[in-house]
Amino acid sequence: MAGDYIGYVESMRHRYPNLRRFCDIQGTSHRQNKEETSRVVVIEIRENGISQKKFDAPDDLDRYMQGPPSTSEPCKHRVYVLEGSAPAYVQVLGRRLRMDPFVFSEQLMRGGTRKEQAATLPSQHGPERSFSMQYVESRTFPDGHLNTLGACCLYQDRKIWATKINSKFDEVAKVHRIASFWSRKEPNGDFNGLILVDPPVGELIKIGKAAKKEIRRCQNNLYQGGYVDISPFPCALSLDKDWESQPGPSRESLFDDILFYWNHIDRFPNLHSSIIEGPAGFFDGASFFLKSIIAANWMQFLVYFDEIIDRLEYALARADINALDGVENHLVDVAHWHRRCWKSCEQVEHAIHALQPDLRLNQDSSLTTGSVFTSIADFVYIHKKLCALTKRCQRLSLSLTNVISVIQSRQASEEAHSLKILTLLGMLFVPLTFLSGIFSMSGEFLPGESSFWVYIVVSIPAVVMVFLVVFSKEVAQFLKLKEKQRKSLLNVRLTARPPASAHGEAKDVEKG
């Protein structure tokens, strides 16, 4: 039908393979997550302030975008915030904003991988500016509620990575999240922006793989209370008066947290004026809260990651040097965390290049380009910390490999010692058995009889001969060493004796 945005995107899936994920989820023929609900709020940015408007249904949003109500103070810019990916809201926003469907496709990407995604060249992008960022939300699942590796969120299949340490599940899990931002300057000079965020984790999660997933209630909480407030700390405090409790974000829903900071934009000096100024200011300022919250979540993950590495290093220091299985389990854990940290470095680097494509992380590049709300410096710092943790994982992995080599060498030495003892016993009993077979010991040669001594007299030289033949090299070296010691002792004695000529000269002097 005319004006069908999702149908229009479906018609292009053969031209653009990286839209297949979008069509598989949002397409009318095989639409997934039919019961998913979304929330939408528009943030109206005016010269004299900011206001918010919530929409209860897609029709309300459509009517608003078709002809926004006129007010005494015209709205200069608008930022729409969408939680979830309900097809009805995607239909309205995509059609009214004439959005590039790749933005929705990136947001709907599977958890943790880029399967069914094809990269696009920078030259293929239109006048819009957009980015998609992946990040990790750390949450605790107490009392062993999460004891499987195949878990994901109820909607959009965001993966929940359970942590295993020494083959035991840890209470803290990492929830994969994606957030996106899109903006464009309209012909009349105004700006429209869209923020796409994931729904909160909630207590209902999916357990299992493929079509065998089951929905299970799983209680979970924020790790250490969630990320640190991104608001600047008020340094100019007057302690002479009573202060009321300062509200903070809930940290349970990124959607609610973004709206909270927009309501308290006065905590961030110059942010409102920066958004009003121009294109760069709108792109950096309108996405500032989103970028800052993502960076704060990464910092929370760094705290947990550092704790994990400390625990693994402490376990190595206290480990029994003979417990090979335990050390191998630690090596598997370190390999998992090394991969996870390396993947996190990739995700943060992707975010940095999305914000500043010309930045070279391996060179001393300037971070002062753009406004003060670009948040580039925060992500560069996070990237450096992740690289440092990756190197710690590499060093720990090398240490564990060396410990395993020491344990295996010790075990090989013990096995060689045991084999040597068995060989010596065999060398002792084989000639005895051989001689008893030759003599066909019977009658008077049996043990306890009168001629049994003949067997002993013959066996002893045979055993000695066998040992001499086997250890002939060692015996020869021993004899050479004794001969060398004897010659050295003789040389010492000859050197200590006084010369005969000097003694004779002394006697001649006395006679004269």
UniProtKB/TrEMBL annotation:
The keyword Secreted does not apply. Its main location: membrane. Keywords: Membrane, Transmembrane, Transmembrane helix. It is a multi-pass membrane protein. The keyword Membrane applies. One of its GO terms (cellular component) is membrane. It is found in: Membrane. InterPro entries: CorA_TM1_TM2, MgTranspt_CorA/ZnTranspt_ZntB. The chain crosses the membrane at residues 419-440, 452-472. It comes from the Eukaryota. This is Uncharacterized protein.
